Amino acid sequence: MTGLSTAHRRGCVGHPCFDERAYLSSERWRHPEHQLLEQAALTVFAAYHRDMPTTVAGLLATLPTTPILDCPGRYRVRDHDHADVAALVGPAVAVTRHAVAGARHPVLVARLPDGGVISYAWPDGRFVHTIGDVDGFARKLAQLGLP
Q: How far is the C-alpha of 146 from the C-alpha of 99, rounded, in Å?
């Protein structure tokens, strides 16, 4: 990638030099009119990583996340609230849906080799996605009463 400016890398959606993390974490993704662009970026992300196994480490390296306070090993995915879990983990990962007494919304769980993704499906079509390493994922599943 020598000779390519950061602005060039951020503008090349679909090109190997595209920097998904920097592009998706930019302020413009917070505006509703960019939801279709978010879906397109996730499509590019999925196509680019189609042959790679989905792991927590890979998701943390490519998606904009923030640590969840007082919850070691768990992270909230930012700027992807209109994408379902399958868009994050890919079609090869099984996603299960649960009705949990301790959660206001349905809980979607995707198990990965090094942890997993727990998402909450809001009635308006939005999602809150969280990523957990092995310990954080197991701790939250136990808290929710899920096996």
A: 10
